[in-house]
Amino acid sequence: MGRLSSKSAIITGAARGIGAGIARRYAAEGCALALCDLNDEGLQTFASELRDQGTDVLALVADVTQRDSAQSFVDAAVAKFGQVNVLVNNAGIFFNAVFEDMGDDQWDRMLQVNVTGVSLMSQIVIRHWLAGSIPGAIVNLASISSVIAFTHSAAYGTSKAAVAGLTRHLALQYGPQGIRVNAMAPGIIHTDMLPNLEDMQRWAQERIPLRRPGTPDDVAALALFLASDDSRYITGTVIPVDGGWLLD
Ligand SMILES: NC(=O)c1ccc[n+]([C@@H]2O[C@H](COP(=O)([O-])OP(=O)(O)OC[C@H]3O[C@@H](n4cnc5c(N)ncnc54)[C@H](O)[C@@H]3O)[C@@H](O)[C@H]2O)c1
Q1: Is residue 248 part of a domain?
Q2: Is residue 1 a part of any domain in this protein?
């Protein structure tokens, strides 16, 4: 029996990186999966891989910033699985921008994907849970940028601080209905999202107490805990998964 057997989870931005890592780990624990991404080709290739290993997977293109798209995706997941138990708000974007040169479009896009996307998906899934009196768990992707500042990272850091705030607000609001909301705050995780991956790897080996960057598997282990009943008395937290980076 897997730790998520008889459950189903929605994971956004699951075609690659951390989202794909979480999907693999949930699948190994018996979870049925509803995955979305903007990248249809990558998503369908990954979904076929999971299906070949025996996982029940729905994989659809959906844009978490668009209400109709997000709603259709959640409706399709509910139609396929009857109910959804876990929402992982993983879809996100990252770029650095010199603040005084930053364009309105850059700011808007960062907040749209990283904040509005999380809010929209959470609202749609929470409505499903409230309508069916279903206890659910939300796992958000914040970042250590939620708590410390990085040069040229005002937009990203602000977006991730908002995710941490939204996590606390929703946890407070919906705790009485049995809905738990937590966030993970990764440090450097080895994915294609990060530019200058080699520099970051070197930097991580010198500076991070555990002397390496993280992997999607490292984050997926925490995502499994936060989705499972093992974390049944934990809500509203933002948990670092950073190799000890925040200590320094
Ligand atoms: N990699 C890191 O070091 C790191 C650190 C801290 C936090 N995070 C957070 O973890 C999450 C995943 O990061 P990653 O490194 O795997 O990134 P990634 O770029 O490898 O994957 C993100 C996925 O999200 C998808 N996506 C983007 N916009 C979308 C939208 N509007 N609708 C649906 N899907 C969309 C992309 O197509 C992509 O497949 C992000 O929220 C990121 O901010 C990453």
Answers
A1: no
A2: no
Does the beta carbon of 65 sit less than 6 angstroms from any atom of ligand 1?
yes
Residue 2 lies in a domain: no
Counting residues of the chain whose pLDDT is more than 70, the rounded percentage is: 100
CATH number of the domain enclosing 213: 3.40.50.720
pLDDT classification of 200: cutoffs 50, 70, 90: confident
Indicate which residue's Cα is closest to atom 38 of ligand 1: 13
Smallest CA separation from ligand 1 atom 30, residue: 63
Q: Is the pLDDT of residue 196 over 90?
A: no
Name the residues annotated as catalytic: 156
Alpha helix locations (H) across 60-215? 67-81, 104-111, 117-132, 154-174, 197-207
CA distances from 135 to 19, 45, 121, 127 (A): 23, 32, 16, 12
Residue 44 CB less than 6 A away from ligand 1: no
On whether the CB atoms of residues 32 and 57 are closer than 8 A, the answer is yes
Contact 136, 87 (CB under 8 A): yes
Give 199's pLDDT tier (boundaries 50, 70, 90).
confident
| Cα-to-centroid distance, 91 and ligand 1 (Å) | 5
Q: What are the pLDDT digits (tens) for 207-234?
A: 999 999 999 999 999 999 999 999 999 9
Give the residue, by CA position, lying nearest to ligand 1 atom 18: 193
181 lines ligand 1 (CB under 6 A): no
Longest CA span, the chain: 54
Domain membership of residue 111 (yes or no) is yes
**Domain housing 95:** 8-240
Shortest-distance atom of ligand 1 to CA 191: 15
Q: Residue 133 C-alpha to ligand 1 middle, in angstroms?
A: 30
